[in-house]
Specification:
Layout: E1 14-16, E2 20-25, E3 39-45, H1 47-56, E4 60-63, E5 73-80, E6 88-92, E7 97-100, E8 113-127, E9 130-144, H2 148-152, H3 159-167
Parallel strand pairs: 5-9, 6-9
Antiparallel strand pairs: 1-8, 2-3, 3-5, 4-5, 6-7, 8-9
Length: 169
């Protein structure tokens, strides 16, 4: 009898608008709960959505309430990989859209984020009789929160731009 082949997940990609992201590690830095080189972040899920996607097999983690009287809350870990199918990541400001790649995505570890819309790709896994669906980032649009100084100085050119203009005179 031939061995069974692993089937692709029948679960469709998941789109989440206005996602709240936490535990950012776009750089893949080694941390207490993260091996060096593994890029990821977590998304806080609304309880109703968490129950639905958990039933579908996504790896949802439930957390104890933060304060007495609060409800438990849920999150899902999202992995970023740039080797086989790199995600499309776009950083949005009031006047520009910048596509981020493996070399520049770490800027999101410290960015002041206003809004995140994203698409997650499901990847089925099975280890020692346990199975589930791991979330991989397929596409993400990150709108930055720009304060009044960012807006005020948006049109100021870099010193290197000014120096090259002066050299040309």
């Amino acid at each position: 009898m031939a061995p069974k082949t692993k089937q692709r997940s029948s679960v469709p990609p998941m789109t989440i608008e206005n996602a709240k992201i936490i535990y950012r590690n776009f750089s893949g830095a080694a941390k207490k709960f993260n091996a060096k080189g593994l890029r990821n972040f977590h998304i806080v899920l609304e309880p109703d959505l968490a129950k639905v996607v958990e039933r579908d097999g996504w790896n949802v983690r439930w957390h104890d309430p933060r304060e007495e009287g609060d409800m438990p809350w849920a999150s899902i870990k999202v992995a970023l990989r740039f080797d086989n199918y790199p995600p499309r990541i776009v950083m949005v400001t009031a006047d520009t859209k910048t596509t981020l790649d493996e070399e520049s995505v770490d800027i999101l570890d410290w960015a002041e984020i206003e809004k995140v819309d994203l698409v997650l790709s499901p990847s089925s896994w099975e280890v020692n009789g346990k199975q589930g669906i791991k979330a991989y980032l397929r596409k993400m649009f990150v709108t930055l929160n720009e304060d009044e100084l960012e807006v005020k100085y948006r049109t100021v050119t870099k010193d290197s731009d000014r120096d090259s203009e002066e050299d040309g005179d």
